[in-house]
Specification:
The structure is a homodimer of 291-residue chains.
Chain A lengths: L1 H8 L5 E2 L3 E2 L5 H14 L4 E6 L6 H4 L7 H16 L4 E3 L7 E4 L12 E5 L3 H10 L3 E4 L9 H13 L7 E9 L3 H23 L6 H8 L6 E3 L1 H15 L3 E5 L7 H25 L10
Parallel strand pairs in A: 1-3, 2-3, 3-6, 6-7, 7-8, 8-9, 8-10
Antiparallel strand pairs in A: 4-5
Helix pairs in contact in A: 1-2, 2-4, 5-6, 7-8, 9-10
Amino acid sequence: MFLAAAAARTKHIRLGSAVTVLSSDDPIRVFQRFSTVDAISNGRAEVMLGRGSFIESFPLFGLDLADYEVLFEEKLELFDKARAQQPIRWEGRTRPAINGLSVYPPLEHHLLPAWIGVGGTPESVLRCAEYGYPIIFAIIGGQPRSFAPLANLYREAMAKYGHPMQQMATHSPGHIAETDEEAREEFFPHWLGLRNRLGAERGWGPGSRGEFDAMCTPEGALYVGSPETVAQKILLLKQNLGVDRFDLKYSSGTLPHKAMMRSIELFGTVVAPRVASLLDAAPTADLNLKE
Amino acid sequence: MFLAAAAARTKHIRLGSAVTVLSSDDPIRVFQRFSTVDAISNGRAEVMLGRGSFIESFPLFGLDLADYEVLFEEKLELFDKARAQQPIRWEGRTRPAINGLSVYPPLEHHLLPAWIGVGGTPESVLRCAEYGYPIIFAIIGGQPRSFAPLANLYREAMAKYGHPMQQMATHSPGHIAETDEEAREEFFPHWLGLRNRLGAERGWGPGSRGEFDAMCTPEGALYVGSPETVAQKILLLKQNLGVDRFDLKYSSGTLPHKAMMRSIELFGTVVAPRVASLLDAAPTADLNLKE
């Protein structure tokens, strides 16, 4: 719903989700919602489908966590058929069968761009490659570098399944300000608040400034700092994983609106052009892909 | 989705559906969508819930038409609980149970206005009164006057169930132009096209100009004519049924955009003020309510 509202107020930005929990939704409804956003936005919609790291929606819709795998597997299969815009023939055990029906509204502009959002499991990477979808890794902890084996697995599996290579992306939280110091000071209390709120629900134990600072180093998963720091960190991501795209998760709990808007502005006006020029200057960067 | 886009582009108009087929949807998802539109629009959302006159969505979601009654009955009960914004305890046979969970996003502005849309069955009127919801009658054929017994049934049932009286409305198709002649000529071919397309699916037999003209008379269900003709017809509706609100369905298949925009403009700038002044001049009109 929010994307439809954004579609009506914008002209250029792409409108995507991160992620749409397909497992606890109905694939036909998901397709209908995104094809509607695609129509309203003149072809700017994209959907990122995932199994869901948060599983609060499962009991609300009466789903059994024991079906975590089969729910996503089956629903992805059905979504893929709806997206192909042919009369659908499908049956499975997680949803009623469909016998030759079409889904409206039809896509007008193109095949709806659909990504699979994955955490760190090889099974998810293989399933994404089986369907030939572009992949986006959610890297919200640990080291981005450690996803290199999964990135290689995706490339190899896409080739094995005979699909042309698709885009590969990562998604991480971050915050940009004029200087590293300013970005960290501005971001830390809000990061800590959200971190501890989630931690309490998930049994992680309390976060600390030490943990935060480690995540802000070049090897960590937080893209926090000056435009130059964040640009260099994205370049490193390109060198280590060979990604085609980086998505910054810029909202973070109680972070004030003004700081967030400034961060978005710096990301678009300084970081993005800087990354482009760094990549132009280092065209052999992806020689290191398989290290 | 469309209402969310409209919410982002408008400031004053109310944003409602006509109707949301609750029977083939999930009441929690319906509540979530409309509470989101309500947030985006600063409290301008309303939902009209119905069983669905069109039943194309039933096989798509694996629903059995034999459950037509129980699906709406149970789903209305669950929707009503979600709307009350308390942790939900519910069980039934058409959807998994919910045991004490809350639904997000919460309503910020008010209790989401929710109407029940009914065709012509007394059972639907009684169910609406049982829940104490405002009622809207879809009058798309026959004579609006013939709905008087149902309007009286609603009033009596609301009193019997101990609910304060709620708004009563009707919804009919129509088209407004400068003169009766112009409105009819402009509207007829598009009405006929849509009428015959639906008729072919539903086995009605072909429509005709005679049928159309009869529906455009003061006693018919088409609100087609000059602003004065349509205003007088709405006044008649007030006198015959005692309605508080009239919704004009202004889209009709292939009717050109320009003619539709002109009709909307005349409806808002000429018809609505004229109805208001006619009602001011005839304050005793609803003395005839029970005839």
